Amino acid sequence: MRLKSIHLGFDENSLTVYKAIANKHRLEILRLLSVEPHNVNELAEKLNLPFSTTATNVKKLEEANLISTELVPGRGTQKVNAKNLDRIIIDLFEKEKTEENNKKIIVDMPIGEYFDCCVKPHCGIVGENDYIGLQDDPRSFYDPFRKKAQLLFMRDGYVEYRFQNKVPYGATVKEIEVSAELCSEAPNHKLDWPSDITVWINNVELGTWTSPGDFGGRRGYLTPKWWLTNYTQYGLLKRFKVNEKGSYLDGTKLNNAIMIDDLRIKEYPFISLKIGIKEDAINKGGFNLFGNQFGNYEQGLLMSITIQ
């Protein structure tokens, strides 16, 4: 079952939620309701607070749409409070303002829909409920059920995706951005396990991110409960962007001369995205790639193209 979440930013609606949760009693109410519904009397008793104070806090959470109240039959009819959300996420990346005459094409590619791959053990593909194929067997990456993958990992190699080129004829491509949740690949997990993970678009190398480690020990927000916590649990969301001014990783300009025209997007019916470990990488620590039901982010490979 997919978790219900809300993303907060810098707008007025987000400010309402920030104000609602900036109180230890209201946070405790949310924690209690995350376990099961309660009425106000039950909440007041567990919080050791007066009924009136508890009712006021419940109302604040209702106004922020974090919880809901409904009438249910009991000893007579009683009001019962229940959670509306499982997670509250704060997005520190402020949405960029796009020029009025620009438009965006956004595609979220499932991680199992790769076009090509080169895989070396330790490796595997994981679905929502079980492994797909055999662990440490590169042949599993050609299993038809790979399209249902929610996590794929390898010690060395790459995966390549081909996005349909949806840029209208005659349009000008101003910018392209790709994002993915990634981390290193160590036995089980290891926080200190650096790996140089490189991204290419249309066979043009954009840059390399050195992942500090393979993250585990605590469950990822989306990672299913059957997956053991001593295995890889989540990654970091990395954003590679190219425009007329250059190429960027998480907003920091990369030390290369790659610009949007170098990607020759208009020349192909597809846009190739390749993620992998270079043969001459200094830190060959492999990589994990997360789908929209594994890790911390509800996305696969997200590509955003700004056109004019």
From TrEMBL:
<feature type="domain" description="HTH arsR-type">
    <location>
        <begin position="16"/>
        <end position="94"/>
    </location>
</feature>
<dbReference type="GO" id="GO:0003700">
    <property type="term" value="F:DNA-binding transcription factor activity"/>
</dbReference>
<protein>
    <submittedName>
        <fullName>ArsR family transcriptional regulator</fullName>
    </submittedName>
</protein>
<dbReference type="InterPro" id="IPR036388">
    <property type="entry name" value="WH-like_DNA-bd_sf"/>
</dbReference>
<keyword id="KW-0238">DNA-binding</keyword>
<dbReference type="GO" id="GO:0003677">
    <property type="term" value="F:DNA binding"/>
</dbReference>
<dbReference type="InterPro" id="IPR011991">
    <property type="entry name" value="ArsR-like_HTH"/>
</dbReference>
<dbReference type="InterPro" id="IPR001845">
    <property type="entry name" value="HTH_ArsR_DNA-bd_dom"/>
</dbReference>
<dbReference type="InterPro" id="IPR036390">
    <property type="entry name" value="WH_DNA-bd_sf"/>
</dbReference>
<dbReference type="Pfam" id="PF12840">
    <property type="entry name" value="HTH_20"/>
</dbReference>
